[in-house]
C-alpha cells in the first residue's frame, strides 16, 4: 500500500492516525462531568483586590475598601474582601460600617473587642468620619460621632460634631448635652468654642 504513495503522503497519513488515536485516548481518560458554574452571574470585581499572598495591615485594607463603605455595597463587599482577622482589622471594619451608616453593625464589631480596646476602635471610627464633619456635613456624620462618644466619652471633637448634628435637626436638648460636655473638655478659646456657645444660646431660646 505504502509503496505507491509519496514519502510526504505517508508522513501525513501517519500524523493523522496519531492524532486520531491520542484524541480518542484523551476522551477516554477525561470522561468526568463538566464543572457547573455556581457563582453570581452579576459579579463586580473588587477595584483594588488585596494580594492574598502578601500580609495586609488593617490600614492598607481600609484604604482599598473605603470607596465601598456605603449603604449599597458595604455588607456584600465585606464578604468579598474581609478585614484582617486582628484587633486593628476589627477596628477598621467598624469604621467602614460606620461610614456606610450601619451604626448597629459597627457597634457589634466594636463589642467583640476587649473593653480596654474599644476606645481605640472609636478613634479609628472618628478618623474615618472626621473629614465629612469638617467639610460641614454634620448631619451625615452625626450618628458616627455619637458612636465615637459612646466608647470615648470625653472625645471633645466627637462631642462637638455630635452636638452640631443634633442641633441642625432640631434636637436641642440632646445637642445641649453634647455641647456642654464639649466645652468642659475643650478649653481653648477659638471658633469651635464660639460656635458651641452660639448653638447653646439658640438651643436655650
Structure report:
It is a single chain. With 205 residues, the chain is mostly helical. Residues 1-6 and 10-55 have low confidence and may be disordered. The protein has helices at residues 7-29, 58-65, 74-80, 87-99, 103-111, 118-134, 138-151, 156-168, 172-185, 191-204. Among the domains are: 56-137; 153-205. It is elongated, with a radius of gyration of 31 Å. The chain is 64% helix and 0% strand.
Largest sheet: none
Oligomeric state of shown chains: single chain
Category by helix and strand content: mainly alpha
Topology pattern, helix = H, strand = E: HHHHHHHHHH
Distance between the termini: 114 Å
Got a strand count? 0
What share of residues is helical?
55-70%
Provide the low-confidence segments as ranges: 1-6, 10-55
From the spread of the alpha carbons, the general shape counts as: elongated
Annotation field: number of helices: 10
The overall average pLDDT, rounded, is 79
Proportion of residues in β-strands:
under 5%
Which radius of gyration do the C-alpha atoms yield?
Answer: 31 Å
